[in-house]
Write a structure and sequence with these properties.
One of its GO terms (biological process) is cilium assembly. Helix content is 71%, strand content 0%. The chain is mostly helical.
Length: 189
Amino acid sequence: MNQWRGENDSDEGNLRYFLQNLACHKFEEAIEVARVANRFSQQYFEVLGKQCLKYIELELAEIAFQECKNVGMVFSIKSIKNETEKNVLMGHVAGILFKPDLAQDMFLRSSKPELALDMRMDLQDWFAALKLAKQIQPEREQFICRKLASQVENQGNTSEAQKLYERAYVNPSTETKDKRINIEEHNAQ
């Protein structure tokens, strides 16, 4: 590695040393470089935070995102920091890094496959959500069908939308009295 001169180094020297530390997974040293690289500090911390996330270095990722004032990422990391199951944690990290297919695979391998369905619903990826709901939580199919029907209808495919709306309808006579109020509200939408 090159000799780094800290605050006295040039922008090019800071960048070179920063990238060398990233490549060697010396994230603590990369944080120090980012702190003294005044001109590009924000960009360094963003890159560093994402790299730390890739390697599940959550504490360091949190520090990096705090330094560049990315509150959303800090909040996301704090919300998953105490997760103990590896596949669930990796699914959340993949989701944070905008890799929904990888996140779905990790959630499906975990003890909480419903998180894959929740993620697809959060992304409003109703086709994928419907497919997952059939496998994981069939009781959520009607809600998803209604959302998908609305999307398909807005795209101009009224015949397909009609079929989906019919699948979304819940017959209140087959349900208990306690559930009827929610069912009638669902069907009215």
